[in-house]
Design brief:
- The protein is α/β, with parallel strands linked by helices.
- It is about 45% helix and about 15% strand.
- β2, α2 and β3 form a beta-alpha-beta unit.
Length: about 300
């Protein structure tokens, strides 16, 4: 959840192209609409049916703060309600996905105010409500809140130099945006305890893949491209079935096996009320490519 000493190891800003509207080497694909909000801390673009949200606080290694999360939530909500978008990629810079939370913003807050205002709730609510899949493309540091943000996504791809960790204990506190819960489910109790209680045991990209925290590891320069490629594959499927499949998988963390199987079966049966199920099976029987209409 918290920005750590990782942010002190670099003093040079991220390349100007990343801090401007150039948006990596993907600028040629960027589609801009006149109704796009003017964000200060994120960059947004679309590539076909895929939306890309890039954290853009390069001097702070994308340290997480309330304003940044308000912008992330606003962009995610817009794309979740946009029928032309089928999947979303969330990424940061080459040096940091997000190196933690902005400590200066929270260090002087008090329990009563945090409790009454449900501090950090807005950091997690929108991602938790997303109907469309979100793919995290993690380069560099994903520490504290950065690790928690990545774990809120549905799929995590990592660059070869990615680092995942939960160092909050070093600041006299604990993870507060899902670290104790999602990390334990991903890597198991013993490794989660070691990481969270020591605050110094991190996972590199290959270790994260071995533990099942991430799905795949790529060279840093290919990471976002690969995440977009996967998002495009997902976005090309029937949107209703994709949403149902995501909902069913997420319920595996909430339900016992019997209830989960029942939930899955009811959603499976419900797909037979959709046009895409008819088109998909007709296309398979006819040995042709399906033309999904997302209904």
């Amino acid at each position: 959840m918290f920005r750590t000493l990782a942010s002190r190891q670099f003093t040079r800003p991220v390349l100007a192209a990343r801090a401007s509207g150039a948006l990596h080497a993907r600028g040629a694909f960027r589609q801009v609409t006149t109704d796009t909000p003017a964000y200060k801390m994120i960059l947004t673009e679309t590539q076909g049916r895929v939306a890309i949200v890039t954290l853009n606080r390069p001097k702070a290694l994308n340290a997480l703060c309330s304003e940044l999360f308000h912008e992330i939530n606003d962009a995610l909500l817009r794309f979740d309600n946009d029928s032309s978008i089928g999947a979303i990629v969330l990424t940061g810079s080459d040096r940091a996905f997000a190196a933690g939370a902005d400590i200066k913003e929270m260090k002087d807050t008090e329990f009563i105010g945090n409790y009454k205002n449900n501090f950090l709730a807005h950091w997690t609510e929108q991602l938790g409500r997303m109907r469309k899949p979100v793919v995290a493309a993690v380069n560099g540091y994903a520490l504290g809140g950065g690790c928690e943000l990545a774990m809120m996504c549905d799929i995590i791809y990592a660059g070869e130099k990615a680092v995942f960790g939960q160092p909050e204990i070093n600041l006299g506190t604990i993870p507060g945006a899902g670290g104790t819960q999602r990390l334990t489910r991903a890597v198991g109790k013993s490794k989660a305890m070691e990481m969270i209680l020591t605050g110094s045991v991190n996972l590199d990209a290959m270790e994260a893949k071995t533990y099942g925290l991430v799905s795949a590891v790529f060279p840093p320069e290919r990471l976002v491209e690969e995440a977009i490629k996967t998002a495009k594959k997902i976005a090309a499927k029937g949107a209703v079935s994709v949403q149902m499949a995501k909902e069913a998988v997420n319920q595996a963390y909430e339900l016992n096996l019997s209830s989960g199987l029942h939930f899955e079966r009811r959603l499976f049966q419900a797909t037979f009320a959709t046009k895409d199920q008819k088109e998909g099976m007709d296309a398979f029987a006819g040995k042709r490519k399906p033309n999904f209409v997302h209904e």
